[in-house]
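ok so for the tutorial part 2 we go from a plain amino acid sequence to predicted structure tokens. step 1 is just haveing the sequence, like this:
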Amino acid sequence: MASEHASLSPFQRELLELWLPDARVVADRSWGLTGTTVLQVESKQRGRFIVKAGNATDHHMPRELRAYEQWVPILASIGRAPRMFRGHAEAKLLAVEFLAGELVEGGAAEGDSESYRQAGELLARLHGQSGTLDDGAFERRQREESLGWLRGPHRIEAGDVERLVGHVETWPAPPSLVVPTHGDWHPRNWMIDGGLVKAIDFGHAALRPAHTDFARLASKQFREDPLLELAFLEGYGADPREPEAWLRTRIREAVATASWAHKVGDETFEAQGLRMVADVVRELGWRP
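step 2 — the prediction. this is what the tokens look like for a chain of 288 residues:
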């Protein structure tokens, strides 16, 4: 039974037994680098579901529960994101309806402009639900997070670290228009089903500036094929990237990627992060 899975806490097992008493595990889809267990389960009575269970170190579940309660329904209502079945914040447990399809990442759809046009449309729909001007909190947090990563363990070149710390310390903290964002918007979190792109994994969702959801794509897919960026912008309908704010976000994304990947031992992702750091350092004129 799914409720007997070894990675679940006693409280999580008890809740899952109440929600889906006859569910069995079809596949363990956990990533292995975070404190979240992800199970594909099947119930004869209820159907197929994805169950997410956070451990004591997990900090994504509150975000994901909020997203499914407040922001995901606009996509779920048109069949382009899962519907929440049950959720429990204290237990860090979430069950959502299983979404048919294949991951865009690693398949033919990853290089197809139509995937990006549709992804742009979905993102515009998510972002368009609301917008609030903050008091500079986002920019202050981005500055402090960037400095925290730079001052922690990583393999960024020492000279670059020194210059980046000095640069980040000067960042302003103007008010930002914040909207519901996905937080990890790229092909690993898109599904393709009958030609339709769908969105999954809202564990990074939060109120942020719209341009932050362009960062993952800009670091890889847009860099490799500019036509994919054009298709994405066509679907999104505008380009929210103001140059100075966009550069600050890209610097934060670069140092966070390099540092986090080093922390968890993901050498491939770390190499991508170090390349991202090199890109922004060159853009700042510190390297040829």
